[in-house]
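Lab notebook: predicted structure, single chain.

Context: the supervisor wants predicted structures on file for every construct in the current expression panel, including those that have not yet been purified. This is the next one on the list. No modifications to the sequence; it matches the entry in the shared construct table.
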Amino acid sequence: MSNNSYLFTSESVSEGHPDKVCDRISDAIVDAFLTAESQSRVAVETLATSNLVVLAGEVRGPEDIDAEKMELVARRCVREIGYEQDEFHWQNMKVSCLVHQQSADIAQGVDASGNKDEGAGDQGLMFGFACRETEELMPAPIHFAHKILQNMAALRHSGQETRLGPDAKSQVTLLYENGQPVHATSVVVSSQHLEGVSQDDVRQIVRPIVESVLPKGWMCSEDDFYVNPTGKFVIGGPHGDCGLTGRKIIVDTYGGSAPHGGGAFSGKDPTKVDRSAAYAARYLAKNVVAANLADSCVIQIAYAIGVSKPLSLHIRLGENAQVDPTKLAGALNEVMDLSPRGIREHLKLNRPIYERTSAYGHFGRAPDSDGGFSWEDVGLAENICAALT
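Prediction complete. Output recorded below exactly as produced.
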């Protein structure tokens, strides 16, 4: 296979995957605090195993968001995902809340005071990416992997399909020719199901979903279409595997098509640059591509804890670049304040918009009328072009 012809694979996991159950609970707790007080500070991790959910972390916000309310949030999330199994049931599971107040030392370094602007909540590097492989300006493998599971979940939640369980995974391998995806060479889907449902039954449920997601003529051969390869998937969810917040960072972002700084998103309020700066980097990269300045764009931003100004802004442009990256960096700094406060205000992130991000990717989603997925808007493209002139 030549350098111009290659295979690339990305995976996704459903909302009922153990780690995604934890991401959803953590993000729902963030939303609960931001609903009560928009300036709340939240860093909450969740662990889930057989009929047990453990909440741990640090918060600063209204005292009425207490352990009892956080427990109710956790139970609601598990119920809405669809877990009513003997070994993991939203009513019967134990919820242990070990959340405590945020460190005063961290607060001192991060909070704005006097002439000091709000600093980053931690050091780190964050990446954003966009490309022309899909209308959403996302890499095609992760986009299709997400859509397969989203459509399966919609079928299950609607009641049209009662044989599938909440836990599922997908994996899509695409053939690239001259840098563009042209065909699926293999598709893997594993879905939890009821006892007595055969592997072939699941295959027949899943096939039309996959075929509807992939572009016409892209479906792989039958021999390369793998559904529940182990043959049986009745035991799933947190009873099958322990779940933890933040373990699916590649699923959450670009499916391996772009670098990742290493910081997870879920469970963190938007003062944490792991989350907000990654959203800003995606926002800028997407607008660069939407402005036809390049076919793809990778942006890295780095921060130091307690320091408001980014330490660096690096841009790497793909094919058909129409601008010098150094000049583009200056334009991006002109059109958007990349301090933690500037990002939050520009994208209006201090709102309860995070639970919906916890499954099927934080990127490539349509902006919501209430401000959710604001970082997916492409209204900045014109401003970037103007700043370059």
